[in-house]
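User: For documentation purposes, I need each entry recorded in a consistent format: the amino acid sequence on its own, followed directly by the corresponding structure tokens. There are two entries in this batch. Please keep commentary to a minimum and don't merge the entries.

Assistant: Recorded as requested. Entry 1:
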Amino acid sequence: MAYENVLKNPDNFNFEIQQLGEATYANPCSQEIFVDDSEKIIFSSQIKNLNHQLETCKQLPAFEKAGARERIFHNLDTTRAAIITCGGLCPGLNNVIKGLVNVLEQDYGVKEIIGIRYGYKGLTQQSNQEPIQLNSSVVEQIHKQGGTILGSSRGNQDPEIMVDELQRRKINLLFCIGGDGTLKGAQAIAEAANKRQANISVVGVPKTIDNDLGFVEKTFGFETSVQVASEIITSAHHEAEGAENGIGIVKLMGRDSGFISATASLANSIVDVCLIPETPFQISGPEGICAAIQRRLQQNNHAVIVVAEGAGQDLFNNSESRVDASGNILKDDIGELLKKEITAYFKQNNLAISIKYLDPSYHIRSVSANAADAVFCYLLAEHAVHAGMSGKTNLLIGYWNNFFTHVPIHLATKERRMVDLDSALWRGVISATQQDKHP
């Protein structure tokens, strides 16, 4: 894991944030408490790790603290901002858009703000969609709706062409809202712009419903997803409870990390088995899922299984991986496989069951953000604008040890964050479900 490597070899990880140049203009945000670049948020909060790092490294690994700077880099008279959303939908996208527009317009007086249509494709000649002119009136009500008013898409585009388009439109602030692939695209744009000395600040707002971005403790939309998923688990439980030998299977998002499945299972402790990508499992055999479910049916007459979409992929016999437009490996349907194998097992043992399979992924990701996520989205947007106006680039706004931070994109996309099987979260799931670590 990258985190363990930071603790062992902190000097191998660069937390430095790129700056376009000297910030010479006064910040017009008179109500702000300004932050200095020297203010840092320490990577490790445990004393034993700090003591080790003090003995072994030249400089303690730490994030630059996010917030408004007293001096800004971009000239307010010539600043033009663009906002882009990429990848799959996620609760809170419109909240972030609204926050960016309001802070740019009301705090900094930026008059030219555009929304790029349908992801990075909107920054190429392949697109026939003109950007949307954004202001506070346009975005006033958008936080009430799910999805994104800008549209989204997957797929890589040539960063040189995208920088051409940004320069043609005289954009010097680009806010990229998206996950791992989007942020890698933002990094490519920032690097291409830097080579031209184009003075374009590229700032990411991390959007991954799976909460699996490295060096970021929490991403927006996750809390809403867990809340909605928990409600769907309740529905699956009612379905299972209402039938003799009823079994409910709920498949949730999580291609490589099981944070939503684990957290939703712990939030709604009626789950009998939680399956995530981080730990393997068997379907058949005395230690398999089928045998475990049979034991639960004997005890309670019903059972609920929650499974992350990326769990159990080793159980499929595919020689070639399929990928989507962004290069993400497409997962085989573990929910359907579980339903098929469990049905066959109980039929073979002459036991009648009633099994229901729910896949609410598209419903969950397209709902509007709950109150907690709405607040988080606004604060992410606010700090993103402050970072961009101060001339920082090739970074995203993170959250670490209860502080908003500046995270170099190369760090956040270095390695996916995964559920630690020794963490309090997973131990809590094991305690609540009473399943073995390898059921």
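Entry 2:
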Amino acid sequence: MDIMEQINNENMNIADKIYIFDTTLRDGEQTPGVALTVDDKIQIAQKLNNMGVDKIEVGFPASSDGEVESARQIKSMDLDSTLVGLARSLKSDIDAVIDSDLDYIHTFIGTSPLHRDYKLKKSKDQIIDSAVSAVEYAKDHGLTVEFSAEDATRTEKDFLFDVFSAVSDAKVDFIDVPDTVGVLTPKDTRLLIGDVVKTFNIPISVHFHNDFGLATANTLTAIECGANQAHVTVNGLGERTGNCSLEELVMTLKVAYGIDLGLDTTRLYSLSNLVGRLTGVKMPVNKPIVGDNAFTHESGIHVHGILNNSFTYEPMSPEMVGHSRRIVLGKHTGANSLRSKLKEYHIDLNEKQFENVLSQIKSLGDSGKIVTDDDLVAIAITELSSARETPVVITGMSISMGANVSPTATVKLEIDGVEKETASTGVGPIDASLNAIRHLLQEDIDMELEEYNLQAINGGTDALAEVFVITSDSHGNRSTGRSTNQDIVMASILAVLDSINKLLIIQRAL
């Protein structure tokens, strides 16, 4: 037994069945700036259902006609997941859920002194009467009822238990304990939920917010104490800093606790992307489970381990959540990382070329750049090109330019072992440089630049530039040239020289 198994087997009271109650379409939509259309909700609900989520809270029907319509349309899809509507402990709200054709209601009322005194302006007895009346009215209409004591974690414990006792007597189906402003710690959670589970012989649900970054940890603790159901949202969306994250909870239970909830976890990554796209809330790259960096590696030491056995530096395989592994290149890149990437693109380099490419990648990394796959391919192709016969080599260059002054380029070339130098002007530094090259090579080749393409591969003012050119000579021969460099002028010169060298080789072979 390893240390994790030993820890996880101690002080556990895990229920035989744990339900996942997803509230992305209700609490998730309350994320500031998020508004989902009916079609958006239908798409998300379908994906949640296909994953096997037990319950989907489709919205708050009393808040708008659109909420009623979206609930009805999702209900008409005949999904396997149980569909839930939110309602305050008011007859009109419950009627709106009934009017939405839903069979499960999640009703709530504030119980803390803050909610009683400042929001509801009701006494403790009035709070209990409202809660019980709502449960009884919903039960009388054939609904499955879940009751939440809003702001439960800032409610006096004796009064909170009085409320739960009253709704239990009214035959409520689930009691929910919301940490409405996310003030619980795992220690507090253990004490509170442990007592709730011991006191009430009824399924217990938890709804925890993430104001201190503890929503997932607190939800796991609640499950350890016997909670039967967890409220979650995709990507941890929700009011303020959000709710317990669906993907974090499900995968922690599966991997760390060995509890498989029967969900198709391979759909998590695509679900996360859909919700991110529809809500406009992009996940941070370091978001656990579904972030772009969740299975991304750069360090040479890590990549070496990953290539031999992925579990050396990953707690689970990316395939478990429908994600994929990425190896990125930068200043921490090792030889194993680079060889793996080159193999992926079927690029074969000799040892000298390999060392040159690795050196360039580390140099870019030291300058603060992340080297993308496109960067690597461009650098490697340039290195392969440079290995050909090179009658012409640049040995020096300088540019002078200023306001109201024509740019001047001084270029020094070694042509068949003979060094030549000249200066030329042009409409810009690149044009001036190419004019100087033409002048130096006029006795060897009559070159025309037919096509010139410049692309910034990555972002920023210091982006790696890739230049592709096509040149021709007076004999009708044409040749391509390519180069990458952080200096646009140098990239342009090297691309042209790459092409010229090919033309010279062709001429001399004829």
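Summary note for entry 2:
The first strand starts at residue 19 and ends at 22.
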